[in-house]
Predict the structure.
Amino acid sequence: MSVLVFDMKVSVPSSGQGPGVPIPVGFISTTPTDDKYTIADGFFQADVGLYAEFFPLNNRIVLTAMLGVLGTGGNGEIIVKLFKSLDSTSIGVEIADTRIGFESGLERYYTIELQTADFNTDSSFNVYNLTAELEPIEETSASVIGPISLVGVFYGPVL
């Protein structure tokens, strides 16, 4: 079996540990047309835009995200979401999410990974946005410290 790679993009806004950006407390409500840069400080993390001039109906886009976080106060949950948009500025529609519990004591450094596939896309340009938010359980706080990465690969035709 052979497949073509139509496009591949990698977004690495932070390749190592940095000073940390506080994760906003959710549940953050969005509409698909919201500007991803103005929703909430620390919510938007990374994006990739994938393009294919020709794309078969039987295709897939494989996405892999990684986010390094630090629990800075209390115990809680971090929710990481992946959104799909057809333009480069709107947040789009949520297509996948994961959550991880964290502590701010001895086990305070975490790496969150999220992998998913978007099958049979019918658009030649697709943007995927990675976000993070805290579930408002109690008095908790956490920061994204890095690394941050989002990789997208556009394959087709998939038989």
Observations:
- The beta strands are 4-14, 21-22, 44-51, 60-73, 76-85, 93-102, 109-119, 125-134, 141-156.
- The first strand starts at residue 4 and ends at 14.
